[in-house]
Structures are given as structure tokens and as C-alpha cells.
Amino acid sequence: MSSRPSDTSPPGTGYWLRFGARVLDHAANAEGKVTGLGEPFERGTEAPSVAYVRPLHGGFEWKAAIRDLSPVDETGGAR
Q: HEC string of 54-77?
């Protein structure tokens, strides 16, 4: 994956943080895919502080602090 910013990454977040990104939530010790960024009522120029993550094989999504997330490559290894 490229180290340049993504057009779908919110300002102030890592280039890897985007809809559909595979992530590891260190606080929950769980892996999933990003389904949403920020609180629905947050609008403006401030970077989001939370992401919504859904388990890889389905299930209920959870709210994770962005500071607790790290990218996972498609082979399952953390980067």
C-alpha cells in the first residue's frame, strides 16, 4: 500500500484509515473493517476521534478510538 494520503482518509488521520480498511483494535483485541468514521453529529474541520468497526466475518460493529487502531495487511499481519 502507498504511503501517500488517501482521498478517502479524513484530514488529520493516517493514510490507511478509510472506509473498508482492515484494522486491529488494540483496546478490544479484535480485528475488523472500518464501516464509519467519526460521530454522526460531528461536522467541521476537526479530525474524527472514533471509527466504527465490524468483525471480518460479520456481527455487530463497535466504536473504537482511532488512537487504538492500527492497519492490518490483507494477509492478516499488523503493519
A: EECCCCCCEEEEHHHEEEECCCCC
